[in-house]
Every structure is written in structure tokens, then in C-alpha cells.
Amino acid sequence: MGKRSRKLVSKILGRVWRLFRRWLFLMLSFGPMPEHIAFILDGNRRYAKKKKLKMGAGHNVGFNSLVAVLRYCYELGVKYVTVYAFSIDNFNRKPEEVQGLMALMKEKIDELLEEEDTIVHKFGLRIDFWGRLDLLSESARLAAERAMAATANNTGPVLCVCVAYTSTDEIARAIKKSCSKKREEEAAGARGSIAVADLEKNFDSAHCPDPDILIRTSGETRLSNFLLWQSALTHLQNPRPLWPEFSLRNLIWAILKYQKAHPYLEARRRRLAKKQN
Amino acid sequence: MLPSLHLNSTLNCTTLNYSSTLLPLRGSRRRTRRDVANESLVPAAHPARRYPSLSASLAPAREEEERKEGALLPPPLRPETLPRHVAVIMDGNSRWAKARGLPSSAGHEAGYRTLKKMVELSCQWGIRALTVFAFSSENWTRPKVGSGFASPYLEVAANVCLVLYREGIRVCIIGDSSELSQSLQKLAKEVVDKTKNNTQIDLIVAISYSGRKEITQACQNIARKVKDGLLEPEDITESHIEEELETNCIPEFPNPDLLIRTSGELRLSNFLLWQSAYTELFFTNTYWPDFGEAEYVEALTSFQNRQRRFGQRIN
């Protein structure tokens, strides 16, 4: 078969696959759909070891998997996706691994912004970075700030990337801001104590609803200091596949499990909101 | 009116001290001989009031102690890898009762028995702290069935504290107990006061608790310190916040190593949000009243087999 006919077959198969996906997502959308999904991208290194790849290659494969999953999420109509890319605790790893991750981050951000047919341009994505950007390497920090500035006016779905982030650090920063503001308000004569809603306004995630689903791959069942406040009523899932192995099938199964638990979750969320007000 | 607690002043619970950083080895714990005359501390003034399973807990102290001293850690558990602090969300009492065609109160009674068993097992196996989620603040907005919906359940919870204090258990209560009745609040305060010197195991009972409110309360306390000039906002650290959290009542290990949630629900439900940063979560489909020794061993075995990395690499 010639090169041209192979290309044609590939194009047709690609189209058929996209049509099948659209039908599948339409079926799923008859049930309640999550507005916000959070991912802990666990298992890149174990995947590299399993496939006998060289050191650091697991994170590259993990990034490709992330782009695919983001594409499926946004096609499904999920408005917010948050990913735990790098924790403050991860700075304790070997320096070469940390440097490799910083370099990868810069490279992939540049790729997403500069290349033509990426999810940023296809979906009008807005990218936000949560965490202590001041702890990142200079080049990674500048790349993150460039991405936020370039996509600030986009009105499509939102990608929140947690880098140099821990939830306890986020809460501590929010408390610092709240206490500073309270002191200024009291100096101006205002009275009253800090409420739950006041504290929430000072979080990195202030403009984002709480996640509906939190997925941690590779079967580990812990939050590792990720979105502790925000995941009070989140449906927690821990599928067995490592992050590079997390596919469309796993995502659909995750959403089906969420849809099954949804009525109970929704009732609890309304009660929590009522109690806090 | 609930009976108030009268502890005999000669009752003295002392145990061997051991480093809080080491897990107790099997057989290293000794209980003191208790004064048998003091064993029945439920006043006879209210004999007619029925408390679930109270009679079972009035077994002679000596026999119970001998049984416990002989209790071994069941295989495959190893004492060096047991969690020091276990948290439990005791979910599923009502569904358990509904499945059996019983009223909810029967579910809570069965739940109380399960809790008592769990505290006993935790004591035997050397777990140093147990936090139980008795009643969330969100539960107050549940539709009430008749009057005094919460009252029997909370009385059961209070009786857990009443009965178990003499086992050397130190009871702490976290959450907002202002929504309890006056008599229950008074009883809770008495239990905490009377058991504060016990050292066998720390039992934290979370009543009307909300993790977000706890963090906000810590923020308010810190704001007060800032107002008084004791602290600058830019100097606030995570340690300052941890000191203000209610779980600081056990300063050695305020954060649970393992959190168990029964009845198949996969969420934290606003429980110990800050403290669960690195906690291993264990979810089981069993309803709380059915959570027995076998299920507890399964949870602890699962904890044992996990590789806790705290963000780092283990080669």
C-alpha cells in the first residue's frame, strides 16, 4: 500500500475515532457531569522503570498522557482541570531530577504556547499556576508567568497547574493575607471576626469551584498535601494504572463512578454551603 | 438528667513511659492493678436508665486484664509498622439498621458496640491515638424524624466516654459542642477533666466537627495574636497554625497515619482536612456496625503494605 493510501486510511480512522468519542461523550452527558476534576499525576518514574526507559523519560511520557487526558476532559465539557505537577516536598529529591523537571516544565509551556495545533489554541484554554512560584528556577518561573499572561483573557476551560505547591502552604498564605487584611480593617475601625468565606477568598483557588472528582493514579490512597481544604466533599478515586497508562477508558469509568455517587454528594454540598452561610 | 461522674481519688492509672517516637513492642505494656471496689463507677442512682451494652463493660477488671495481657498481635501485623494514630469515620449506622428493618437507634447502639471493641483492640495492639468522627456539623441540618433526633445518638456517644474512661483512656473532644444539650456539654467536660491524666490511649471524639471551621478558628486565634502584637502576619508559619488546631490536644502525633471510612463512601466529609495531608486513606464497603476485628486487621495490614514517601523517593 502506498504512502498516500496509508495517510488516507489513517485520516479516515482518525475521523471515525473522533465521531465515536463524540457519541460516547454525548451518552455520558445525560448524567451529571463534573465541573472540576483534579489529578495527582503519580507513577511516571515507576512507568519508566517498568518500560526500561532512561531516567527522566517517564515525565515526558507523563506529559503526553496529560495532554491527551486534558483534551478528553475539555471535549467532555469539564470546565476546570487541576493537576498536581510538583510539590514543595519534591524539592528534597535529587538535584538532577528537580532540575530535569524544571527544564521539562519550561520546554512544555513554551511548546503549548508557541505551536499551532495545541490544546491552548484549540480550546481557548486559560492556564493558571498555583503555588510558590518564587521557589522555582528562574526559567521555569518566567515560563509560568508568560503562560498566565498570554492566556489571561481566554474564555475557554481552565487548566490549573500546582507547582511548588502544598495545600498546607496555601492555607498558611491565605491565613497570612487574612490576618494582614483584618489588621488593616481594624485599624480603619471595622469589627467582626474572619469567616470561612473570608479565608477562602485568599486561596490560590479562590476563583475556582471545589473539585468534584480527585483522581490519584497508581493506586496510592492519600492526598499528599493536595487541595486538602477544597476536597472536603470531593469524590476520591485511586485507579491502579500508573499516570502514563491512564487512558480514556479510565476517565470514562471515573466519571461513571462519580455519576453514581452524585446525588448524595450534591445533597451534602448544599448542606455544607447552608451551614457555612 | 444524666448522672455526673464521681471518680475515686485513689484510682491511679500509671503505665510505663516510653518514647513517643517508638511504637510499643508487643508485651512491653503493663497495666496497673485496679482497685476492684472501684470497678463499677456508674452510679446506682439511675438503675432504670438503659444504656446499650453497659453490663458487658462491667466484667471483673482482673479477668479482663489477664485476657488482654495474653492478647497477641494477630498475624500478619507487625508492631513496628503499626500506625500510631488512627482516625475513623464511623459511617453507615442508619443504613445498617435500615437493611435489617430496624430503627436508626438500633444502628447507633450497634455502632457504639463496634466503637468500644475498636478502642479495646487499639489499646491491646499498641495504637497510641484514635480519633473518631461521631457527628459532623452538617448532620444538624438533616431532616429530623420526630423530636430529639440527635439526643439518643449523642447519649450513646457520651456513654462511650463514660464507660471507657476507666480503661486508662484519655478523652479529648473536638468540634463545636455548643449545639449539644447543657447536660451533655457538662458531662463531656467532666469526662475530659477526669481522664486528662490517663496515658493508655488518647481517644479524640469529634462531635459537630468541621475541618474548615477548625482551620478558620485557628486563623481567628492567630489574628487575635496579631492584633495583640504577639505575632506579625509575615512570620506566620504552618507550625503556628498546627498549634491552634484542636488536635493539638495530643501534641506528639496530632496527624493520623491511617484514616478508615466505612460504608463505601469515598470522601473526607470535612474531617481532619489539614491533618490528613499525608494520611493513608482506607475505604471499605462494610457498614460501621459490621466493622469488626477482621476488618480492622485488614485495614492495618493495608497500611503496613503501603510505601509512605512524603513527596520524596525511596530507592
UniProtKB/TrEMBL annotation, chain A:
<dbReference type="GO" id="GO:0016094">
    <property type="term" value="P:polyprenol biosynthetic process"/>
</dbReference>
<keyword id="KW-0808">Transferase</keyword>
<dbReference type="InterPro" id="IPR018520">
    <property type="entry name" value="UPP_synth-like_CS"/>
</dbReference>
<dbReference type="InterPro" id="IPR001441">
    <property type="entry name" value="UPP_synth-like"/>
</dbReference>
<dbReference type="InterPro" id="IPR036424">
    <property type="entry name" value="UPP_synth-like_sf"/>
</dbReference>
<protein>
    <recommendedName>
        <fullName>Alkyl transferase</fullName>
        <ecNumber>2.5.1.-</ecNumber>
    </recommendedName>
</protein>
<dbReference type="GO" id="GO:0005783">
    <property type="term" value="C:endoplasmic reticulum"/>
</dbReference>
<dbReference type="GO" id="GO:0045547">
    <property type="term" value="F:ditrans,polycis-polyprenyl diphosphate synthase [(2E,6E)-farnesyl diphosphate specific] activity"/>
</dbReference>
<comment type="similarity">
    <text>Belongs to the UPP synthase family.</text>
</comment>
<dbReference type="Pfam" id="PF01255">
    <property type="entry name" value="Prenyltransf"/>
</dbReference>
TrEMBL record, chain B:
<dbReference type="InterPro" id="IPR001441">
    <property type="entry name" value="UPP_synth-like"/>
</dbReference>
<comment type="similarity">
    <text>Belongs to the UPP synthase family.</text>
</comment>
<protein>
    <recommendedName>
        <fullName>Alkyl transferase</fullName>
        <ecNumber>2.5.1.-</ecNumber>
    </recommendedName>
</protein>
<dbReference type="InterPro" id="IPR018520">
    <property type="entry name" value="UPP_synth-like_CS"/>
</dbReference>
<dbReference type="Pfam" id="PF01255">
    <property type="entry name" value="Prenyltransf"/>
</dbReference>
<dbReference type="GO" id="GO:0005737">
    <property type="term" value="C:cytoplasm"/>
</dbReference>
<dbReference type="GO" id="GO:0016094">
    <property type="term" value="P:polyprenol biosynthetic process"/>
</dbReference>
<dbReference type="InterPro" id="IPR036424">
    <property type="entry name" value="UPP_synth-like_sf"/>
</dbReference>
<keyword id="KW-0808">Transferase</keyword>
<dbReference type="GO" id="GO:0045547">
    <property type="term" value="F:ditrans,polycis-polyprenyl diphosphate synthase [(2E,6E)-farnesyl diphosphate specific] activity"/>
</dbReference>
